[in-house]
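Components:
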Amino acid sequence: MAVQKTICTACSCLCDDIGLTLEDDIVTRIENACRKGASFLYGTQFEKRRNPYLVEGQVVDAEKALDRAAAELSRAKHPLIFGLDNSSLEAQAVGIELARRLRGSVDDTSSFCQGTLVDLILSEALPTCSLAELPNSDLLLYWGSNPHHSHPRHLSKFTIYAHPEYTELGAVRRVTLAAVEVRESETSVICHRVFRILPRGDKEFIGEVLKGIAGEQTNREVKSFVELLRRTRYCIVFAGLGLTYSLDNNFAPFVELARQLGKWGRLAVIPMVGHFNMRGFNHSLRKATGYVNKVGFANGTSRGDQFSLLEQVKNRSFDCLMVVGADPFSSLPRSVAVGLADVPIIAVDPFQTATTRGATVVLGTAVTGVEVGGSAVRMDGTEVALMPGRKPSRLGDEEVLRRLLEKVTA
Amino acid sequence: MSVTQDHPQVPLVIVTYRDVYAWAAKLDKNEEAMYEKYAAIVRLSEGELKALGVGNGGKVRLSNSAGSVVVRAQLDSKCPRGFGFMPMSHIPNELTSYEAGKLPNFKWIEVMAQAITDDHGGQGAVGSAKEG
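Structure:
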């Protein structure tokens, strides 16, 4: 039995050193994957978790399901395509083209996740770097993120334990691991320096740090943070959802902090993106439209909150929803998700979820990265070619979207 | 009504976080039944447990205008007073809400917490929020 190399698509680390041993196309052994990656890779082969092609709960063939999905999309006056964060760049491009053809709108999880941060990075309002530049850094700062749970191999494959200067010995530490965190997490307990703040305390903390940088009086904790940064040559900030939600997507104070700290040494920001190709979606949509999310095509191309899934569900401003590789029934506030009840939903997903269980049409697809290939963008912006290890038993989402594009009438 | 009258109501702010074990349990064939165990918890300080009158592992009902869930209290000695930490899942999503122009309040959910006893049948089932 040969060990096949593959890239794990359980999160946006896109670990490229995963070994898969297959017997009759069944995964019998996985090497190097984390708890998250191993569950995901094994989970792909449990047929009871996978989706067939369904129309109103009845199993049908692919063609019938595609025809019904195309009919629902063509009939809709305001169709919304949501998701695509677990699809390849190639599938994303087709999905965006489908939204354009339908004169509908397109949005993804990044509109209530890391989209604003990625946008600031892509527009160069915030400096960034690739993970390959890590050996040059001397401060690794996790801010509002706990990679132990969100990206379990981040510390070992990419940051502190992978740093060439990391050692547990010696009196002089050449690379420092630090965190700004609201609770004691598995990551914060191994950090050399931890700056504890209260939930929603990030803006106040940044304000105090800016005062400290300006030489004004501030508290001991903040002084110590300022001193650490003053002595730092190259700091990489791994910005998590804790920071995003605390600032309620208003990154102006953080941008100013990065600007000020950039005067002392190099500073780069990498977003701790969740879904494996959410950053890729931001890149794809920006390439196609100039915007990273929340785009409408009814009158040319425009962007605004009115095109976000949340706003559209709240205002019931769409009449057909196609969800690709996402589960808004579970991930949205319940009080908002109830608004999905009376709308035709087309779910394109390899796995059964609360959303596929409530969908009018289900298009069970192959798992991107495991059963079909393509490319994706890692959290640091590096484009990666996926290496599927298993044979697909279903169409991939790129093929499904392409077939829909051929079938729909705008 | 499953809540005993002698347990006080305590205001809390719930902050959600990612939990790899809950995430993996959803996909892992052998751990599916463990999902609620990993997801239906709230981490509280010792002071908060005392204020609620509940021990480590006891049941707590969290309620607000959006909904209500029952979870198990878990002692987190470093948790700040007034806050509770919960793994992100469909369970806290029963309590979350969204205001136009803002992010959903996944990391700032205001609730009233109250300990509940075990002798109230289905109404006190842990993780009583239902997916989908």
